[in-house]
Design brief:
By secondary structure, the protein is an alpha/beta fold. The chain has a single domain (about 10-255), classed as TIM Barrel. About 30% of the residues lie in helices and about 20% in strands. It is built from 7 helices and 11 strands. The chain has an 8-stranded mixed sheet with strand order 1-2-3-4-5-6-9-11. Strand 1 and strand 2 form a beta hairpin. Helix 1 packs parallel to helix 2 (about 95-110) and helix 2 packs parallel to helix 3 (about 130-135). The radius of gyration is 18 Å and the shape is globular. The chain starts with 7 loop residues before the first strand and ends with a strand.
Length: about 260
């Protein structure tokens, strides 16, 4: 599978974010994540021990990002989003809040009109520093692929002790000031067929989305290679139908 080999990379074209300058706070040689999602482009989470020593220091990260932003500014490169993504879950970094504070300063200096985005699995929202940091940026994009425990375990395979109920409760702390991200797809894993775009899961997911009432919902399907075999994307038409159902509740929804 694919791992980023730099701290600051791109800009790359993103379906959702446009010209996106990526930030990877994780090692360049391994994925560090609290999930082991069956669809992750970075492959399986082989390292199950989340050690703070694995991550780049704040100083190294900020130095790399400033050099990249400075170069992009000098070359008049368009950047629509400065995006935490990379090789795993960025909010696992023990000093994530400090990185956000320093990044906001850099963004204001080089690209003041550009949004800061964090793609996150929402497992660290119980950490008040992480919660506070995510509230300081424009686009906290938080994942919720399943709202029932068996399907959550099948798709996201958490490697830390957390349930989907925990995540939903933690998402409520964002008070709707976030973007909800859900991957809809289907597959057969070890004889277990699933499709999170079908009933009864779809209605349950919609009920949770309505309760959380995020400022925006992003729904999409598979677009890259996956570590698990037997996975299939769902049609754009199906995604549009889901979007239309949510839009009836005055929710901004985009299907990719």
């Amino acid at each position: 599978m694919f791992l980023w080999d730099n701290i600051a990379f791109g800009p790359v074209h993103s379906r959702r974010l446009g010209s996106s300058l990526g930030i990877n706070v994780s090692p360049t040689t391994q994925k560090i994540c609290s999930f082991d999602c069956i669809y992750c482009e970075c492959g399986w989470t082989l390292e199950k021990n989340i050690n703070p020593a694995f991550f780049f220091s704040v100083e190294v990260i900020i130095d790399a990002v400033e050099k990249k932003l400075s170069h992009c500014k000098e070359t008049s490169t368009q950047i629509n989003s400065i995006t935490f993504s990379g090789n795993g879950e960025p909010t696992l970094h023990p000093e994530f809040d400090q990185i956000i504070e320093s990044l906001v300063v850099l963004r204001n200096k080089y690209y003041p009109q550009t949004n800061i985005t964090c793609l996150s699995n929402a497992t660290q929202l119980s950490n008040n520093k992480v919660l506070s940091a995510l509230k300081k940026i424009e686009n906290p994009i938080l994942k919720l692929d399943a709202v029932v425990e068996p399907l959550f375990q099948l798709i996201n395979k958490p490697i830390i002790p957390i349930s989907v109920e925990d995540i939903i409760m933690q998402l409520q702390q964002m008070n709707g000031d976030f973007i909800l991200q859900t991957l809809f797809f289907k597959g057969n894993i070890d004889g277990h067929f699933f499709n999170n775009a079908l009933e009864p899961h779809l209605s349950l997911w919609m009920n949770v989305a309505k309760q959380l009432h995020p400022k925006k919902v992003m729904i999409y399907s598979l677009d890259r290679d996956t570590p698990a075999h037997g996975l299939e994307k769902i049609s754009k038409e199906s995604l549009q139908e889901i979007a239309q159902q949510l839009q009836k509740f005055n929710m901004e929804v985009t299907a990719y």
